[in-house]
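Before we proceed, please read the two lines closing this message. Let me know whether the C-alpha cells fit the sequence:

…
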Amino acid sequence: DAARAIRDEAYIRPNEGGRKVFLIRHADHMNPAAQNALLKVLEEPPRDVFFILTAVQPGVILQTIRSRCTIYHLEPPAEGAPDDAMLDQLAPFLRAMTERDEYRMAVAAQNLAKLNKTEFRAAMALLTTALRDAIMADSAPGIEPLLPQLQPETLALRRRIPTKKLLATAELCAVLRERASRNASSGVQCTVLAAGAHQQIIR
C-alpha cells in the first residue's frame, strides 16, 4: 500500500519548490509486489521527481528495479568532522569546475598528488559528498548540506553545472577512490580527475 501511495503521489506536482524527492529507506525490505508497484514510475518518473533508494543488500532488489537506478556504494562516515585542511584543498577544484577552467582544475587537482592512499580516498569521498550537496541544493530544498564549509562552492556549482554532469563527475570520483585502494599512483589519479571532470562538464 505504501509503494502504491508513493507511486500516486509522484504524479502530483509539488506545491512548494520545483522538485519532489522520495527517500525510500531499506528498499531491500520491500516485497516483490511493492517493488513491482514502483517499477513504472521509476522507469519513467515525472521530470520534477527524484527517487533515492537505500539498501544494505541491494542484490535482494529486483533486477528490473536496479537496472533503472544509478548505484552508489557508500560506507559509514568516518568518526569526527572532516579535515578542514583537506576541505581547503578541495575548494579551489570546485571553484575551477564552476568556471569550467581546465587549467585551474589541473592545478587544483595536483595539490592532492602528495596525499597518501588513505588520504586520497578520503579526499575523493569528500569531493563526492560536495557534489551530492550541489545536486541536492536545488533538488531538495530544506535538506542541510553535509559539508557546510563548502556551501558557497556547491551552490555556485548548482547554478552553473547541470545535475547530469554533476552525477557523472561524482561517479568518476567513486571510480578513482576505488582505484586508490588498489595502489594506483595519486599523481596519475589527479591527472585523471582533472581531465575526466573537465570532459564531463563540457559535454
Observations:
- The mean pLDDT is 86.
- The longest strand covers residues 20-24.
- The two ends are 42 Å apart (CA to CA).
- The first helix runs from residue 2 to 10.
